[in-house]
Amino acid sequence: MGIISRGFQGRHRDRADRLPPGQYLTHDFPVLSAGPTPRVPTDRWEFTIDAEDGQTLRWSWAELTALPSETPTVDLHCVTKWSKLDTSWRGVSLDVLFEDVESAAEHALIHCYGGYTTNLPVEDLLDGKAWIVYEYEGEDLAPAHGGPARLLVPHLYLWKSAKWVRGIRLLDEDEPGFWETAGYHNYGDPWREQRYEGD
Fold it and tell me: Where on the phi/psi map is residue 65: left (φ > 0), alpha (ψ -120 to 50), or beta?
């Protein structure tokens, strides 16, 4: 059985009940990116977690994909107002990756191949809320959708689910990422329509 996101309401409910305010349903998977699509061979890919005390944990592609995986089925909500329901993924829970991290940090800055960054509270990465995913609908994750691996945080707008993820830096103080410094909301809860600063 797959893991279900906090915002998932079940198939028996009306689809309209699963759409946050201002969203419309799409059946395709639009591709939106801030720049060119990085192409990262898996033999050169790595993922790191850097704690605020200087500790670094590092995984190669082989090490990441050898970890216990989960298959979450979640709804996605983009800040550009589309939502896609019942998307299926495979990846590693951040709970697994954080098992050996010693940190009191409350903030995280996600770093990606290609230079993209986004910020999140650490609590939004743990307790079954986030994954590093490498398969979508049973296939390897395509580069256009963030492959070889992306962050998946389905309870927030999709820009927080950073494509081409390469690391997480834990911080004592919040540090806005790419879209947050450009005027997007610092948190991005779709159910509260937190699209832009001040929402």
Answer: alpha
As a whole number of angstroms, the distance between CA 197 and CA 185 comes to: 4
Q: Where are the domains of the chain?
A: 44-192
pLDDT band at 17 (very low <50, low <70, confident <90, very high): confident
What DSSP assignment string belongs to 89-145? EEEEEHHHHTTT------EEEEEETTS-EEEEEGGGTSSSS-EEEEEETTEEPPGGG
pLDDT 10s digits, 70-113: 999 999 999 999 999 999 999 999 999 999 998 999 999 999 99
What was the pLDDT predicted at 14?
65
**Running DSSP on this structure, what letter comes out for residue 37?**
P
CATH architecture of 44-192: Alpha-Beta Complex (3.90)
